Structure formats: structure tokens, C-alpha cells
Amino acid sequence: MAASFISDFRLMWYLDELKKNEFLQFKQLLKQETVQRGLQPIPWAQVKKAKRQDLASLMTQRYGEQPAWDLALCIFPKIHRKDLCDKASRESVLTSRPAAFLSSENAYRAHIQEKFIRMWSRDSFTEIPGCFDQTLTREEHESLEEYFTPRVPRRPHTVVLRALQRVGKTRFLMKLMLAWSDGTLYRDKFSFIFYLCCRELKQLRVTSLAGLISRERPDDSVPLADIVAQPERILFIVDSLEELECTLTEPESELCRDWREERSGKMVLSSLLRRKILPESALLLAAMPMRPEALESKLDHPNMQELKCFQDSHVKQYFCCSFGDRGRAMAAFSWVQNNEHLFTMCHIPLLCWMVCTSLKQEMERGRDLAATCCRSTSVFLSFMFQAFTPKGATRPSQQGQGLLKALCSLAAEGMWTDTWVFGEEELRRNGIGDTDTPTLLDLRLFRKYSESGSSYSFIHACMQEFCAAMFYLLDSPQDHPSRAVMPLEVLLLTYFRKERASWVFLGCFLFGLLHESEQQRLDALLGMQRSRELAPQLLGCLRILAEIEDPEEQVEFLLFFYALFEVQSDAFASHLMSSLREAHFPLRERPDLAVAAYCLKYCCSLRELTVSAIGSWKWPMGHLWRRGDHSRHSRGAAGDGWIRIIQSHLCFCRTRKVSFSCETGIFFEVFTSNPNLQHLSMTSTQLSHDEVWFLCSVLSNPVCNLQELL
Ligand SMILES: Nc1ncnc2c1ncn2[C@@H]1O[C@H](COP(=O)(O)OP(=O)(O)OP(=O)(O)O)[C@@H](O)[C@H]1O
């Protein structure tokens, strides 16, 4: 855009930004200001009736372009619109730059646009045309603008976007880059935005910040030194921070002090994040919530944000678009919505795609979803079955079964060696040949880890966990090519003791595969009947765990509960749970409630129960109770239903000691129906005013037999 064009219309554009009352004040102050400066005032009658465009012309004609502009800049702060002066000074930096600078900037923007459009289409099999596109929504746009609006004057900005794995962080950053490259975002804020992906950075043994920037610039007509001379106009985006395992605790002496200094990729990044190089630049980091640990304390006043990419409405929209047929889509959606586990899964786009793919195919084959897709294990099994069964066949070919076996072997090795990205050697060791990788990519089980190189990962960590669980049904760990792979008993202990943070669903999948209704599908998929042999062994391990002394120290109850929930065997659950005397578990997300409700039903000998509600999940206390109307209960949210089920289980059990450390008193009501409950601990519980009222009313209830309240 020509600079002269901008200056001709500049005053009018700025006056356009004023609200009606601000524009009136501007006119009043214009009169005073011209008098004070000894300038000849414009007749008030003309000023009074002038619209914004007219006033801009009157001022420019009477005083000349620059003096008219200076007058306006002096008036804006007086009407509390200093932001317009700030905007003007930012723009003047932009327009005063030499033509070479502007053309280099434009070339860079064009390069970014091309690069990110290419990246977008590379990994887009989950995308639904016309459903989610490359444009930022209005809300996304507003929050991104807000992130870099000064909160603390003169402090450089560091924003951290946290979100779970595969939730769509990179996708969001791609949209940001595209919006910036076409001039709709941060136009006045940043001349350059550099996107650094830790996945790629990890592969660089030696580099410098200069090197990282140069990799991205197609034209070097402007020396790099000129670009970094204005660091406040640069934004660095760092994606997948957790990949680099950058602890940000490296000794200061090892960090770079200059953007040209060479170090490992990790050290250069650490120097940038710890503000040793280009400290005035802005930073936007995307990372998983807890990785690296205590990130917040290691950065300079970071603005921590949670990225919510795929919400309930998106899940619904995704179902509608991917099914095509609205009736079927809505049937499948309401089926999923009533299943806490599947619905939670669907908030990760990739898993939502997987759920839709499985449900759609099961529905097309006329199968009952309640029988084929009711738990996470069954959905994964459906997906696998469909992926490996050729069109028109009823079961996988022998060759397919061989590949599946190799895939499961790879997954098991990955779990034990904490590997999520596999190179050619690991693939070959586990029996996956060069010709198999395109098949696995086609089946959407694998994805290429980075554009360059030949490393692969499962499409989602859950998929790796599922395949690892299947390995134990397929093969004997002693025969695995890697000695790291341990026997089943060790796996279960490791899982239930939560010794490995990255093992989230492994144990659940293992037990889920034992479910009666999976057996036949599993036999057909694997071409053998090992699951029946394994069942007693697995259940025996669970029994040992349930009977150990001091269980709280030894196992994570909730994981144990989840495993039982996946098996869904009443006989087994009651056998294991009926002797359980203590249970201690946190409730973090909505599915935890369903699982706890299922298991507590069988805990008839429970003596002590500790339930803590942690995390940001909002407890629906408001639905359950309103002061002055204790009898009315609304069951709006699905979670309310589970709370009521838990309450009703607690009503019947002989629990005497109930140690609650909830953030709210959602279970208080049980004290009004079960006199066996005699002890309540609420240390570190913070009750709202309403909840205190509720507790008082519970305590005065004749059925309440509380003897001890801590
Ligand atoms: N709105 C969406 N609609 C459809 N698919 C999506 C959407 N958002 C993300 N995806 C898909 O989900 C997958 C993961 O997305 P993305 O790589 O952006 O997530 P991430 O959080 O950056 O992952 P990671 O944790 O591996 O860094 C990709 O295959 C992407 O195409």
C-alpha cells in the first residue's frame, strides 16, 4: 500500500475510530487548541456540522497535512484515546522503513503463506471441507490480539498456550501464521513472525538463532542485523515445546548471549525463552499442560492460556459433516453424548474422526452400537478391525494379521522404552518393512513424524497404547526382540502404581479386551484365541492388587476402577470390590464419576473413603441444591446423574469414615440418608457461602449421625 495514500486519508481514518461523544469532545478541544497555539480557528459553525471526513479536510486545508495531524495527536490523549497515538507511532515505524525492508517483509509473508498452506493440506485427512477452515474465528482473532496487548507496561510478552496432546495446537498456530501473512492479524504489531517447531529443532546439533531465522527467509536483501535491530517487532512462535525436553534449568554460563552464537537447538531455544537473546521480542509457546514441568516459574511473567480448540459444538458439527445424513449423524451424536468416555474422547479431533469412522461403518453394517462401540476399547477395536479387513471380506488376511502383529510388537517396545517416534531400525526389528509403512500411513494408523527424514509415530498416543495392549494378547513378551518388554504382571504393577506418566490407558485397554463381547471380534482379528487363556491370568493379578495391605500406597485406585469398568463383569467386580475396605481417589474429569459410580456399587464393606475433586472441572453443585429449596434437584448435566448414583451407593454402604477433601460439598446430601456415616473430614476444603448453609441444614437433619467433623 503506497505510503502517500496512507497519509492522505490517515486523519479521516483516525477520526473514524472515535465514538460519537468522543468526536464531539474532539471538536470542542480543537477550538481551544487552535486558540492556544495562535492558529486561526475554523469557524465553529463549520466545525459543528462537519462529519468526520469533512473535519479531516477542513483541518488539512486550513493548517496543512502535518500540522493538522499534530493537532489531532495532541487532542487524542485529552479525550482518553491515547491508544490512537500509540497506533500512529507504530504505523510511522512501518511507513518510515526503507522500501527494501518492506519488500523483504512482503516476500517473507508470501513465503509463509505458501509454506503454511502446504503444511495444512499435508495432514488433513481428518479435515471436513467447509466445516473447519483455515480462517481464525472472530473469538480466536480477538483473543490472539488480546494476548499481545500490554498488560504490564514495557515488559516483553511471553504467552503460553497449553493444551493436551493432538488437540490441535499446531493447527491453531498455522491459522495464526496464515492470518498474519495475509495482513489480517498483528499487522501493526509484528514485522516478522518466526515459527520454530521443536520437533525439527531437536534434529539440529548445532545452530544459532540467526541460523534458525535464516532457514525461514527466502530473501536476504535486508541484512539480518537490520531485522533484529527492532526485536519488539518480532514474534517467535515455539511449537511442541515438550518435544525438546528443554528444562530451562541449564546453567546460565552455557546459554548464548548473542543471536549469532552457535549452540545445540535446545540451548539456543533455552537462551531465547530465558530472555538472554533478543529479550525484547515477543514469545508465543505451545506446550502440553505439564511439560516441561513448572514452566510458569521459569519464564518471565508468562501469560498462561488454555487452548480450547474443539468444544462440544465442534464435536456436534463434526458428526453432522462427517456422516452426511443428518438423521444418522444425530443418532450417533446422541449415542456418544450419553457416553461420558466416548464424548470426552471426541474432544480430540483425531479421536473424534476415529469414533465417527468406526460408528459410521458399524451403522452401515446394521450393527447395534450398544454392542459394538460402547466403550473406548470397543471403538478402538472396531477401528482396527475395519482397517485390517479388506473390502468384502469378513476378517483380515493372513498378511494383514502379520502386519498387525508387527505393529503391536512395535507399540509394546515403545511403551517400555518410552518411545513415541520410531526410526527405520525399530520398525525393521519389529517386522515392519519398507513396503509396510505406506500401508500403515494409508490405513491412518501411522503418521510421518516430520517432513524430512523417515521417522513415524502412531496417529495418536492412545493408538500406540491400544496396540501395546493387543500385543499381550498376541504374543509372549519373552519372545519380543527387545529385552525391555516385560511380562504381564510387571506391566500391571507398573501401570496401577502409576510409575510411568505416559501410560494412560494401557491397563484399561488390556482389561477392556477381555470383555465378553470383544472376544469373538478379537479372535477373528488376531486369528487366534489367546484372550481366553489370558483372562484368568489378568484377573488373578487384579485380585492380588485388590488384596494387598495399605492399598493407598501401592495402587492408584482410579486406574484400578477404570480397569474394572472396562471389563464390565458384575461377577468379577463384586468378587474384587466386596472386600475392599478403603478407597481413596481424586475426581478429575467427568468420566471419573461414571467409573467411581460403577465401582462403588460393589464396595459393600467400605470403611473409609476419600474423594477429592481436583482440576478445573466445575462441579454442578448449583444444579443439585439451591438454598431454601433443598428438595429440588435438576439433572441438567450428565455428570449430575452420576453424582446422584454415587450418592445412592454411599447411602447403602456401611462406610463410617468419610474423608472428603472436595472443593465443594457435592456429596453432603448422603449424610441425610445414611446414619452409618459418622465421620467427615474436610481439611483443605473450601466451601462457598451456599455450601456452608447446605452443610448446616444437613447437620440438623434427624437422620444425620455425624460424630466427628474435622
Ligand atoms: N478442527 C479440526 N478438524 C479436524 N481435524 C483437526 C482439527 N484440529 C486438528 N485436527 C487434526 O488433529 C491432528 C492433530 O492436530 P495438531 O497437530 O494441530 O495437534 P497438536 O495439539 O499440535 O498435536 P501435538 O500434541 O502432536 O503437537 C491433525 O491430524 C489435525 O489435522
Brief descriptors of the model:
35 helices, about 700 residues, 5-stranded parallel beta sheet, 5 domains, alpha/beta, disordered N terminus, Rossmann fold, Death Domain, Fas, binds adenosine-5'-triphosphate, globular
Describe this structure in words.
With 710 residues, this protein is an alpha/beta fold. It folds into five domains: 3-95, Death Domain, Fas; 99-306, 3-Layer(aba) Sandwich (Rossmann fold); 310-368; 375-573, no CATH class; 578-709, Leucine-rich repeat, LRR (right-handed beta-alpha superhelix). The protein has 35 helices and twelve strands. The strands form three sheets. A five-stranded parallel sheet has the order 2-3-4-1-5, with helices on both faces. It has a five-stranded parallel sheet with strand order 8-9-10-11-12, covered by helices on one side. Strands 6-7 form a two-stranded antiparallel sheet. Strand 3, helix 13 and strand 4 form a beta-alpha-beta unit. Helix 21 crosses helix 24. The longest helix has 24 residues, at 99-122. It is globular and about 95 Å long.
What share of residues is helical? 40-55%
Poorly predicted runs: 1-6, 616-639
Q: Catalogue the ligands.
A: adenosine-5'-triphosphate
Coarse morphology: globular
Q: According to CATH, what is the topology of the largest domain?
A: Rossmann fold
Number of helices: 35
Largest sheet: 5 strands, parallel
What radius of gyration results from the CA coordinates? 31 Å
Number of structurally distinct domains: 5
Quote the distance from N terminus to C terminus.
Answer: 70 Å
User: What is the CATH domain class of the largest domain?
Assistant: Alpha Beta
- Can you tell me the CATH architecture of the largest domain? 3-Layer(aba) Sandwich
Count the E strands: 12
Mean pLDDT across residues: 83
